[in-house]
Amino acid sequence: MPRPIDLPPGPVQVFGGTAELLADADRDGAWMLLVNDTPQSHVDLDHPTHLEFEYVRRMGHVLDLAKASGTPIDAVHLGGGALTLPRYVAVTRPGSRQRVVEIDQPLTDLVRAHLPLPRGARIRVRADDARVGLAALHTDSADVVICDVFAGARTPAHLTSVEFAAEVRRVLRPGGVYAANVADGPPLRHARAQVATLDEVFGNVCLLAEPGTMRGRRFGNLVAVASDADLPIDDYVRRCARDPMPARVVHGPELTAFVGTARPVRDADAVDSPEPPAGVFTR
Hints:
By secondary structure, this protein is an alpha/beta fold.
């Protein structure tokens, strides 16, 4: 597997502030990308299938179950970071075509220069706003769309609306799957509204979340999954239950009860996701 080369001695300037690559003391060949001192991505160069962050592992489950195991897919990643999930797909589904939209070109340059991609990876990175990059893609061109975009520690408002979700649905092929990182804390107003928004556009929606976060006890990352096809709920349940930090899969009547009176978000009233409490995501 490739090894990092010429790692910078400390923080470097990127569009989003400062970025730094730090060696993982617990895993040889693994690296943490921090942006403004907040852990943003984790990459294990020797074992790209290792997904350190719990919510990223749940997105990995969505990718694993999007098609038959090992089958190449066309994947779109909104938000690039250290390209953790594109690396994962390149190894687990050789031959996959992947497009990444990451607005921070200096950040991508840092990652590409010092954390080499797996051999044969077919990953193209476009420097653009996520919604603009999505709009440039062909209709029915992706099997999976993943959204994990933050400006600072918040998801930009224009990536939280019905209009944005409709663009995702346009790009997905029939039966395609969308997964989004939804960061929220008590009382989970943002997460409830995001589920209502996806339910407005897609036929099937579920949430994958750690129980404490789901109950509104703490700020955390929920993974919202949506498709016009039936979702493999039982498989999600089995996989999430085996994780080091097991997650719940909320769907059907339970998800309807979770949404409650929350309304879908439109471009006209969209706002950024909530600011996380101080210290939640710092190293």
